[in-house]
Amino acid sequence: MATFKAWVIDRVADGQRLAFRDFDEADLMDGDVTVRITHSTLNYKDGLALTGRAPIVRRFPMIPGIDFAGIVETSQHPDYAPGQPVLLTGWGVGETHLGAYAEKARVPGDWLVPLPEGLSPEHAMAIGTAGFTAMLALMALEHHGLRPEAGPAVVTGASGGVGSIAVALLARAGWHVVAATGRPGEAAYLRGLGAAEILDRTELSGSAKPLAKERWAAGIDAVGSTTLANLLAMTRADGAIAACGLAQGMDLPASVAPSILRGVSLLGINSVTTPIAKRRAAWARLARDLDAGPLAAMTTRVGLAEVGNLAEAILAGEIRGRVVVEMA
Ligand code: NDP
User: Fold this and answer.
1) N or C terminus: which one in the chain shows less Cβ crowding within 10 Å?
2) What SMART domains does its record include (predicted)?
3) Helical residues (DSSP H) of the chain, grouped into ranges
């Protein structure tokens, strides 16, 4: 019997139980590509799944972990051959399909992205779902017609995973970046990533007026709730906010005033089911535009055996930047 090491969530009478244990390869789910995982990451959603704080896991037993990079071991898919480096984010991996906190995964090849030229598996997971989402948000703002000449861009949850990469990507693209954070001690870190201004997030977290003084033309929001409502109320005419997260809350106590009086748009970002052509385009641009220096500055590394213990920390907003999980 072939086994590999994995974090496994089982259902128990009073909820779920998490264990780091051997997993039988024969119990992997259907898929035409088997991947030897070399790296994964820790995302906010992983924290929710590992703790059971939100109903992320929809099948038991579940191997959590929503993204991975690795090497194809066996393949019946025409696009993939043994030895090829690949990455995967989303598609319900770690939620409905056995996931990434393991030495092995079997998945439909249509979910994979070939590792782009210039990216190592480790770099790909330093970016991970968080960085991919930040890139989708930047692409959405650009698709809306927004350019740095329009005015500043605000990023919320700036010290977190999505936020850190959003700051770096926006700055690299020429934007004047306003980084909103609850951690004033991370100001130097955020300026190092390219932030031009630091904003105390409490300025954005109170209840929002329908309209407020115009402060930015664009934004990437990882936080939701009253923060997103304030961002919209403070956005310049014809600007837009790309909303991807709910670290503060899932509610949106906003008014239609910014939309109907200033033409402000709310752009929704969903990284889970992004079509494959857009995935490849986003990853190619991440490989090209995310400089190694900022990425290294925001990345810490942990072994597979440690990741299960970091769930509470990411939910508490205590993790800075990105965490890469190393399998070996
Ligand atoms: P992180 O925990 O790394 O970052 C979240 C950041 O939000 C924290 O670091 C903190 O930043 C800020 N924050 C935390 N709690 C609060 C609060 N109560 N009020 C205001 N700000 C808060 O998570 P990720 O970057 O991995 O994910 C960010 C969000 O994006 C999550 O909600 C996640 O689910 C979502 N997401 C959505 C995706 C999609 O496809 N739509 C894909 C990926 C992520 P600081 O200390 O700097 O203020």
Assistant:
1) N
2) PKS_ER
3) 44-51, 121-143, 161-172, 187-193, 202-205, 225-233, 257-262, 276-289, 292-297, 304-307, 311-315
The ipTM value here is 0.99
Taking CA atoms only, the protein residue closest to ligand 1 atom 15 is 247
For 226-242, what is each residue's pLDDT tens digit?
999 999 999 999 999 99
CA of 278 to the centre of ligand 1 (A): 23
Q: Report residues whose beta carbon is within 6 angstroms of any ligand 1 atom.
A: 43-45, 129-130, 133, 157-163, 181-183, 201, 205, 222-223, 227, 244-248, 269-272, 314, 317, 319
Domains, the chain, with CATH or none: 3-115+298-326 (3.90.180.10), 129-268 (3.40.50.720)
Residue 307's nearest CA partner among 54, 36, 37, 29 is 37
Q: Is the pLDDT at 291 greater than 90, yes or no?
A: no
Distance from residue 43's CA to the centre of ligand 1 (Å): 9
Q: What is the rounded distance in angstroms from the CA atom of residue 121 to the CA atom of residue 112?
A: 13
Q: Look up tokens 């899932």; give the residue.
A: 250
Whether the CB-CB separation of 10 and 55 falls below 8 Å is answered with: no
- Best residue among 45, 127, 162 to mutate for probing ligand 1's pocket (most ligand atoms within 8 Å of CB) is 162
